[in-house]
Amino acid sequence: MSDAWIEGLDLECNATCRYEESGLKRSVFLRPEEAPKAAARLAEAGFFIEDISVLDTADGLLATYHFDHFECPGRIALRVVVPHEDPKIPSISAIYPGAAWHERECHDFFGLEFTDHPNLIPLLIPDDMTEHPLLKEETRRKGLAELVQPGTIETCSTWFKGLFPDPDENEDGEGPDGAETP
Question: Of 65, 68, 98, whose CA–CA distance to 80 is shortest?
Fold first, then answer.
């Protein structure tokens, strides 16, 4: 299966993964506004959505979208990090109608707002509940680098390097042999 769907997307990180270790073929970090574009490309390539999950981390809320393909299995994870102060991601429910349920669930439990969602009302919690029960106390949140293994990084942004520092890289952005790291 070709990874042509990824070409031209504005990515924070593009990584290949060892399926045997992670259950993923590829892990992609992107900005919130890129999520619908990436989802549309996956839909055009014949991928289906499996689920959307959220982690509450010290670096923000991490939404992870899992996609797979019937004819050429190989799970893809699209990952979006949003700040706690403004937890918004454009909805992909117009592209994948099945995502609407998952987005409502993520909204219920984490307060993540999916803009342009057609019906972002409580799904599993009482209508009058204003708390989001799976949000952690600030002191109990761990950093993304402690919780997520991105895979073998092909390209990444400066922002991403700040969240996932390379232990072999020095302060000048160079590896142990003096070469600039990706």
Answer: 65
